[in-house]
TrEMBL record:
Domain FAD/NAD(P)-binding, residue spans: 49-119
Natural source organism: Acaulospora morrowiae
Database matches in Pfam families: Pyr_redox_2
Annotated InterPro entries: FAD/NAD-bd_sf, FAD/NAD-binding_dom, Glutamate_Synthase
PANTHER family in UniProt: GLUTAMATE SYNTHASE [NADPH] SMALL CHAIN
Domain of life: Eukaryota
Name of the molecule in the record: 2907_t:CDS:1
Gene Ontology MF annotations: oxidoreductase activity
């Protein structure tokens, strides 16, 4: 990014920006995105959440939009409906070195158990959970 900064006078990357809308050129192609800045805050339970910053709306012109999705943990609704326990990072809780949860017949592996990580860990843990 140093080369781009030298060429254009600033780092082109944008952080803590939430896309609100993809804008069409009227012919089925993207022409830009409407965004708003966000701040990360902890709620009453200590879980990280995004809070929109009022007045920070911005339009970015674009011919191509690449999505980079952050990981905020396993789906809370599913975890609650199955009666699963979570750790302090909201990952599905399992005994150390195991993949079985406190609910008989339900196992957790990969990102759901350890948090955001490499796909090879998910594959490996999925295989180990199947053996367990």
């Amino acid at each position: 990014h140093a080369e781009v900064k030298m060429q254009f006078g600033k780092d082109p990357r944008e952080f803590n920006v939430l896309t609100k809308e993809f804008v069409s050129d009227g012919n089925g192609h993207v022409s830009g995105i409407n965004t708003i800045r966000v701040e990360w805050t902890k709620d009453a339970s200590g879980k990280w959440t995004m809070k929109e910053v009022p007045g920070s709306e911005q339009y970015f012109q674009a011919d191509l939009v690449l999505l980079a999705m952050g990981f905020l943990g396993p789906e809370e609704k599913l975890i609650k409906s199955l009666g699963l326990k979570t750790d302090s990072r909201t990952n599905i809780e399992t005994p150390k070195g195991k993949y079985s949860t406190a609910v008989p017949g339900i196992f957790a592996a990969g990102d759901a158990r350890r948090g955001q990580s490499l796909i090879v860990w998910g594959i490996n843990e999925g295989r180990q959970a199947a053996r367990e």
